[in-house]
Amino acid sequence: MVKQAISRPRARDVETVHLTPWDLRRITGDYIQKGVVLPKPSAGVEHLASSFARAVGHFYPLAGRFAVAAVANDGTESPSRQPGLAISLRCSDEGAEFVHAVAPGVTVADITGALCTPRVVWSFFPLNGVLGTDAVVDPSLPLLAAQVTDLADGVFIAMSLNHGAADGTTFWDLFNRWSQISRNKSDISTVLPLQIQRWFHEGCPLPIPLPFAKVQDMGRPFEYPPVQECSVHFSPESIKKLKAKANAEMATATISSLQALLAHLWRAVCRARGLAPDVETTFTLPVGCRTRMTGIRKGYVGTAVASAVARTPVGEILGEGRLGWTAWRLNRAVASVDEASLKVELASWSQNPSFRYSADHVPSAVLMSGSPRFDVYGNDFGWGRPVAVRSGAGSKLDGMVTVYEDGGGRGGMELQVCLAPDVLATLVADEELMDASTGVGVIRSGMCTGGASEEGLCRCRHASVVQ
């Protein structure tokens, strides 16, 4: 357990950070788990541990712990007919976990050379299987953990972060800071000051009372169904073509590159699933709120993400000439998330909290996480840029799509798609989808199963653990 390596004035009372509706509604989910594959390191693990400690010092609330207290369910000090509780973040500097592991039988090519991600990769992440609420029930559980896994010819550097404490923007800000400190062998003095205190809508009760008698009632452990995931890359040129086609079909210029690409994938997933035309399918996108809300300054540490949901019958997005209409559904869903609607939603939630659970996921849904704006491939720790990015076991739902930049710096994107094994095998054999991606010759066979042959699609060197 590493402590922040930055000296701070010791306050008489430990700083307490109240959690927002954005924070609390994600505390029932898995930890955020992302990591990068790097070439053979020239620095020792002690250097990585010390640079991690210095980075944590800049994000010191993440080295704290959750605290829970009983409150009146109506948000006042008066007696309530129904007991409630409140969760806060105590900046107590109890530390972030740092794990050093070795996997001498795994090479970089084992990870990057397989379209289907080998299941062994999930073991490169700390705090597997831990829900955000588990860190409330058990105060010994950290909110943040890092793992450095030595490979045969490289290293895998990963972090796991409680989603109730912060979101993907804060996650990658911390990851970037860690790599900068490691690369420069010193703290970065010319960085934007972090905004530790959370943003609340007007009239929000502090703390927000939650309708549970005890924290254990909040968590719902979920056994994920068997899934496989693959990474598909799209070049800047292919994305530009999709964007142009989508905008032309709708006689507009407002459909973004990401919306066009996700529409292309959404259609392919519906085809691969073999859904009936009258079945409703949904696509849920994260919408960053830092630039949408007045009063949230740059460097905000916490969760500031809403969701946009596009809904449509499957039959309306399939067929020739429907890319633009599908992308327009996504475009309108994102456009509907503005400051006014967000304030209404936040006020409603704080008065009647509700939570999302993996068990509520429906088989016709697609969910997106991540962003092509996150600086993933800039995480050079001092001996070279990452060669790949992968995610952990958390949130591996059938239909989860994680979006990354492709590392080329020219506007390409990488989609990591998680689906049921038979559906994924059909997806990667979909010519319409794959003709827009790079590496079509590799994935034409469409064999994406744990038992794929050497000449098949997956080339999964850990076939025994992929299933």
From TrEMBL:
Keywords assigned by UniProt, alphabetized: Transferase
Pfam family, one: Transferase
One MF term in the entry's GO annotations: acyltransferase activity, transferring groups other than amino-acyl groups
GO CC field: cytoplasm
Keyword Protease in record: no
Superkingdom of this protein's organism: Eukaryota
PANTHER family: ACETYLTRANSFERASE, FAMILY REGULATORY PROTEIN, PUTATIVE (AFU_ORTHOLOGUE AFUA_3G14730)-RELATED
Protein name (database record): Acetyltransferase
Organism of provenance: Hordeum vulgare subsp. vulgare (Domesticated barley)
Organism lineage string: Eukaryota, Viridiplantae, Streptophyta, Embryophyta, Tracheophyta
